[in-house]
Amino acid sequence: MEDLIVITRPEMLSGEAGIINQLFAHGLARLHVRKPGVPEAEVRALLEQIEPQHRDRIALHQHHQLAAALGITGLHFTENDRLAQREAHLKELKDNGFTISTSLHDPADLETLSHCFDYAFLGPVYDSISKEGYRSKLPADFRLEKYSFPGKVIALGGIHAENLKQIQEIGFNGAALLGSIWQNPDNAIAQFELLKAFQSSFSHPTFQQTSSIPGLKPGAMDSKIASGNENGNDPFLTTKAIHCPRFQPGDRGGITDVVDKFHFISNETSELSHVDSIRIALQAGCRWIQLRVKDRREEEVLPIAWEATRLCDSYGAKLIINDFPLVALAVEAYGLHLGLTDMPVPEARTLVGEKMIIGGTANTWEDVVRRIEEGADYIGLGPFRFTSTKQNLSPILGIAGYRTLMSQMQEAGHSTPIIAIGGITPDDIGLIRTAGLHGVAMSAALIGAADPQETFYQIQQALC
Ligand SMILES: Cc1ncc(COP(=O)(O)OP(=O)(O)O)c(N)n1
Ligand SMILES: Cc1nc(C(=O)O)sc1CCOP(=O)(O)O
Ligand SMILES: [Mg+2]
């Protein structure tokens, strides 16, 4: 798949021109300016703020008369506009150097579409999750190669990182992005970078071999490709209904209330996938879940993170993503956990914004101080004892190590919540709490318990 095209939101946004200039600077190939109902003067003012060298990568949906004076060479015709055009006019536009595009909602129209069009948006490809009743017209086995239109066909509607690969497999030449970019304008550039990374990974041989891992089953989105379309909803507005961050900057004063006292750390074994382990923890009653996938590429972690997101959402649990800031951003996770050799907390803060919790690992007093100075919301301090869940463990702290570090915290007047980790069992919690730690993180002791519900009950009692 070649092209990622961004479509503007229909209304004007504050700071929009700045974001658009940055998107171009980050390699955006094409921008569709679609502002139905916005007066010409406002659209002109927006276009004038877009740096002139980027303007030949813009297509206008309305106010075509602005194009020539502003150095814009792209004109887009909505379905209704297209039906009102004469072929001779389209030819004239092509002869005058314009790139022209249009929108279709029925793939059958690709057979009769004027070959003057350089490309066409076809959509919605996916049912809208956010807009009820707004469904795709594409059959489940839809493939693009059957159609004779020689131009590019660009997928539109409900496109996000999770379904980008399937769009390529269907045969689309590109994808038009709206919700995935603009849902949270503060994160527009990071989202674009993530989508670009996924798009380029599809041609990577390692990815192709491993893309059948759980969570990225070919055809996994088939159930979302449905038939029947009828209402007049706006195809450009379809978007995945994603997780809303729940941590608001105003809550920061109460960080000890925000960070749970029990953190479950996912793991996979020969019998269990990460998602299976998370399901066990959720069913046992845990509501703070860390997805900790090791030795996998970002694009392999993302589908697992989506599955974990859906599962945690269904239990009202908070999902923390270990190691992968862009994945945390993509699934709008509640939090991100970073180790000492992962992305530094301040850099991650810039990337994920103010709303996401960021936890950081520490193994020594110097690490604790660094984490506090970096602004970590909580600190995972370990290891308490040997564990085979993590490779390359740091020296074991034991209860004596925790006591020393907690008195140093007290002397220094620090109150960042500290979570003990590493080989912890429910029986250890009493001592760990009396040492002054906020809570504990566990993996094996919960997943491997004969009765995880009973074990979680004991954990809760000990944490009270
Ligand atoms: C709560 C919590 N504390 C510490 C860690 C360890 O993180 P890190 O040092 O990045 O090591 P990995 O888990 O990535 O192997 C954690 N994950 N959670
Ligand atoms: C993920 C992790 N980090 C550690 C650290 O010391 O930083 S120990 C650890 C493993 C936690 O799992 P379990 O409860 O099975 O030991
Ligand atoms: Mg890590």
From TrEMBL:
Provide the catalytic activity annotation: 2-[(2R,5Z)-2-carboxy-4-methylthiazol-5(2H)-ylidene]ethyl phosphate + 4-amino-2-methyl-5-(diphosphooxymethyl)pyrimidine + 2 H(+) = thiamine phosphate + CO2 + diphosphate; 4-methyl-5-(2-phosphooxyethyl)-thiazole + 4-amino-2-methyl-5-(diphosphooxymethyl)pyrimidine + H(+) = thiamine phosphate + diphosphate; 2-(2-carboxy-4-methylthiazol-5-yl)ethyl phosphate + 4-amino-2-methyl-5-(diphosphooxymethyl)pyrimidine + 2 H(+) = thiamine phosphate + CO2 + diphosphate
Cofactor binding note from Swiss-Prot or TrEMBL = Binds 1 Mg(2+) ion per subunit.
Annotated binding of 2-[(2R,5Z)-2-carboxy-4-methylthiazol-5(2H)-ylidene]ethyl phosphate, by residue: T387, S388, T389, G423
Gene Ontology biological process terms, A to Z: thiamine biosynthetic process; thiamine diphosphate biosynthetic process
InterPro entries from the UniProt entry: Aldolase_TIM, ThiamineP_synth_sf, ThiamineP_synth_TenI, TMP_synthase
Q: Which Pfam families match?
A: TMP-TENI
Organism domain of life: Bacteria
Cellular component terms (Gene Ontology): cytoplasm
Give the matching HAMAP family: TMP_synthase
The family annotation for this protein states: Belongs to the thiamine-phosphate synthase family.
Write down what this protein is called. Thiamine-phosphate synthase
Q: Which organism is it from?
A: Dyadobacter soli
Please spell out the taxonomic lineage of the organism that makes this protein.
Bacteria, Pseudomonadati, Bacteroidota, Cytophagia, Cytophagales
